[in-house]
User: Which sequence fits this backbone?
């Protein structure tokens, strides 16, 4: 497993070692010991799986309590995956990083607690799986507008994205609760 630091400390791109031949491929997508030694000492408690049409944008989500770290990967299609630092005392507060994750490149993104997360699907029938470090808690869920001009995220969109009604109600970074 290769761990690649990003412009924001604590957010990491993870590249697994992939073994392929004429039969297909094999790789270890997760190993608790290796992850703890090289990335973060966390325990995952929940796995989530979504399927999206092309140009569906989900996010930017987080939980203000029961904050979730997320290990994100794609098993079909591709996404542009984004993490926004919303830890008020952080030197990178309000900054974002984004990476393409795909079934082809097999990269994963580690997004620790204290970050908002979102992605746009770059292909039809894109399947995203992610591990979470805490359970889903709807009462604590918050949403930052995907198009907040203060964040100025460079989403690779093909026209206006498809966004849920809940995500359309997202607030700007200046209006939401953030981590102290």
Assistant:
């Amino acid at each position: 497993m290769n761990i690649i630091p990003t412009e924001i400390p604590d957010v990491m791109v993870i590249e697994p070692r992939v073994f392929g031949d004429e039969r297909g491929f094999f790789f270890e997508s997760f190993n608790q010991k290796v992850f703890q030694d090289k990335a973060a000492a966390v325990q995952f408690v929940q796995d989530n799986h979504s399927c999206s049409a092309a140009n569906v944008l989900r996010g930017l989500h987080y939980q203000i309590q029961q904050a979730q770290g997320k290990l994100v990967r794609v098993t079909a299609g591709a996404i542009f995956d984004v993490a926004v630092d919303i830890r008020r005392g952080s030197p990178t507060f309000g900054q974002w990083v984004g990476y393409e994750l795909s079934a082809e490149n097999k990269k994963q993104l580690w997004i620790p607690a204290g970050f908002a997360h979102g992605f746009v699907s770059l292909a039809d029938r894109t399947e995203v799986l992610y591990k979470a470090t805490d359970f889903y808690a709807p009462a604590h869920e918050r949403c930052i507008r995907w198009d907040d001009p203060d964040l100025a995220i460079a989403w690779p969109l093909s026209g206006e994205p498809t966004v849920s009604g809940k995500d359309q109600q997202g607030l700007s970074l200046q209006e939401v609760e953030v981590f102290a």
User: Anything to note?
Assistant: The chain is about 5% helix and 40% strand. Residues 32-38 form the longest helix (7 residues). The CA atoms of residues 85 and 95 lie 6 Å apart. The radius of gyration is 16 Å.
